[in-house]
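look at this one:
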Amino acid sequence: MASVSDQAFLMRGYLREGGPPMLLASLFLPARAEFVSDIRDVVRRVLVMAAADEDARYSAQLVTSELVTNVVRHSVVASNATVGLALSRDGATLRIAIHDADPESGEPSEPDEDQESGRGLLVVEGVSDRWGVDRTLVGKLTWCELTAWPEDARAYS
């Protein structure tokens, strides 16, 4: 498994082509359920400091929670696995990138009405402007983008 510093380098270099985005936050935590709320809190605090739109802050916390929960629930890697989070800004766009060492990626599915889980990627798909999963040297990067600074979007359109 790559070291944390190697993973951080991979995430920073993989965020977006066509100009350097502004990295707002980057962290790694154990891929365990008890850290999902901590990661969600980091997203909220960073986006408040970055003056992101209130609706976008809520949406960002929601999709981050869904993506990190997917890593915790579905990862087939060792018990000492980490989950990486990177938040970056490119103009009006917030990019949320979640890295984990499991190369398998899920696809959105239509769960049965009585299923209690299985809607996470549908939520991400519905809330995000765009999203995707990319393979990395040490797993995968699941990312999504939201318009978090709508005033900037209007100023440049």
Summary: Residues 4-109+116-155 form a domain with the Heat Shock Protein 90 fold (CATH 3.30.565.10). The longest helix spans residues 54-74. The chain has one domain: 4-109+116-155.
